[in-house]
């Protein structure tokens, strides 16, 4: 087809379907079967087809709509990010539409197709755990639709990103445990295919190295999704070790809280026998006894920063905007679960 624009008629000819069927499939019409719609979409992606009406709307018409893609909406971190996005967007006259990828790469790709058809003016996304390629976002650059990534962001891909320093935050958490007198510190790690959890593991290791403490592989327990259940299983594995760790840094609060409950059922005192630090400052961290020391990851502020950057790019269409990475500062919130000594500074 050379360099000419691919049309509905081209797709129809390629697939031996009518142009009207192609049009309905592209727009997600309920009369078209899933199999046909996927077949049409695959051929459209292969040939680089973009519907004229959609491209025209992106160029000429303001929809005042922003799409948000999160891995799971029931995770408190993402709920706070969404709240931050929505508050800022509403103040600027934008509405938001929220989708869940459920940590599925295929579902994430399908959502980007839906958002293309819905003519959103910008997208904010936290990548799924499975996402390792980013071709499905390149079409938005061609349409002039800005995309902002937060928390789990792409590597080796030019994009606007809102992040925290996970390495530094994990170092801070582990160092706090060391300052409390812990010398045998375990770590419940997140999925190591995801860079933020790799960074948290490295921050933990660096703190141990700085204070000349051994890195014991038996004390590093990797999880798939950092669920409450996985945290409990990791805690049970620690109880089965010949020597119990005296400190524990967890990559989120869910695993930290479940670990505390397992220890308490086994009559292990927290923090006297094992001091515990979590990550994210979920509301439940202030409910559990003892209250959980944790990292405040500024989720609400992350959402506001993402919305601010996105809307600035939407509104500033006539000037070139360089890709930005905004790194938000975190805080260690010291509570009873780690306080083995008095008057230790809140680092």
TrEMBL record:
SUPFAM superfamilies (alphabetical): lambda repressor-like DNA-binding domains, Periplasmic binding protein-like I
PROSITE patterns referenced in this protein's UniProt entry, alphabetically: HTH_LACI_2
Residue stretches making up the HTH lacI-type domain: 6-60
Pfam families reported in the protein's UniProt record: LacI (PF00356), Peripla_BP_3 (PF13377)
Keywords tagged on the record: DNA-binding, Transcription, Transcription regulation
Molecular function (Gene Ontology), one example: DNA-binding transcription factor activity
Name used for this protein in its record: LacI-type transcriptional regulator
Organism: Zobellia galactanivorans (strain DSM 12802 / CCUG 47099 / CIP 106680 / NCIMB 13871 / Dsij)
Lineage, broadest ranks: Bacteria, Pseudomonadati, Bacteroidota, Flavobacteriia, Flavobacteriales
